[in-house]
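Worked Example 4.2. Read the sequence first, then its structure tokens.
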Amino acid sequence: MPDQEPVRERLVKGALELFEERGYDATSVGDVAARAQVGRTTLFRYFGSKEALVFPDHDLLMQQCQDRLSAAGPSSMSVAVTDCARIVLDHYLAEDKLARSRYRLTSSVPALRDHEIATVSRYVRLFTKYLQSASPDDAAGQLRAELFSHAVVAAHNHVLRRWLRGEINDARHELTTAMETAQVLLRPSDDLDSSSAVVILSTNRSIESLLPQLRQALDDLET
């Protein structure tokens, strides 16, 4: 590896290379430090764990998203949320081969997949917090905000996975289309046509905890 390459980048690249060559569990932090030509102390100065080497930038991305949301007014909050999805997608697109290597790794290592799911939940909670603060206090408005947060993250992940698998080339265009679809969830019921829709989403909340909100939202739609 070139001497001028930043230590942090050498560590991340070296870690992903070794994880693919030897397997995640069979690779130690000492192996990664040696590949990057640094000591273990230096590695832990940058990363607190082996797991953090696989997901090195989510804290930075979360902060960028929070900054974007904090700067948005109530009327532009949904646009700010979709901008956050673009911020994260652009980061992965810039990583290119590293992002594809991470995808292969997280697809094959259950512990890393669990970590990724937990990270996704952080984005959902962040978006929900800001959207609900700018939404009507009624149950239907609060529920639409939560559904939209899940929809944005699900749409982003759908587009990202298609790009990582090589199924699409213009991920940015596809994300724009996906975000336009997600925006429908924020529209009040009287702005929609009379057709019915079923929304299926993944959430870390139990169905029992969601049912009261869903029932209240349905009651509001019928009145």
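Now turn to a second chain, presented in exactly the same format:
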Amino acid sequence: MSIEVIRTAALAGVAHGFLTRAGGVSDGPYASLNCGIGSHDDPAKVAENRRRATEAVAPGARLAGLYQVHGADAVAVLDGVDPAIRPHADALVSNRPGIALGILTADCAPVLFADVAAGVVGAAHAGWKGALAGVTDTTLLTMETLGADRDRIVAAVGPCIAQVSYEVDEAFRAQFEAQDAEADRFFRDAKAGHAMFDLAGYVAHRLARAGVRTVEILGADTYADETRFFSYRRATHRAEGDAGRQISIIGLTGND
């Protein structure tokens, strides 16, 4: 099976892609394009998968990654990329051609950003904790330090767990409502004491509130679509112990 790269209209003209689990060399529960360095998969297979993913999106680029911690920190990648060095953060930005920014997810929302005129791109890992803490806001601020203009920045929210699959309790809901008076519209009542949460919608809301005029939501459900996506929550519900990770990549080529 060949690699599947999902691209968006919002980021047309920029080397980018939200990849699925297809087209890699891993097997078993990690079949096949598992790019998760922290998984229990064979490290050599993960490295090959990451190489294939990068070549599918930004041929010849060097892939920069993170040790993701579900926070709101963003880092700028300006120099040479050492795959062994992964800053503890949840977003990357760059204005250097030849560098690809990679974010890993398995239900959390990957968000890719670009200001084409300024030649600045970004990638963020927005799980519920990071989204609430403002990881998209810090990504925008860090892009601006490299010359991006918020009025020009566009963003795309990639495959993540959909509202129909994301049941949470009232304590979870209360954290959002305490911080944001508009957050209630991203919850739909479910069984007693529970609700269904729209992560992608909330992330898009935070982007729009921050001044991003163009935000595209892909709408693919990582939990429900087992054929195409890894899902940490699905693996947990099945007591599988571990899950693969798909990667989302954006970068600047010499033509951008």
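Notes for the reader: Helices lie at 43-57, 128-133, 135-145, 170-179, 199-209, 232-237. The mean pLDDT is 96.
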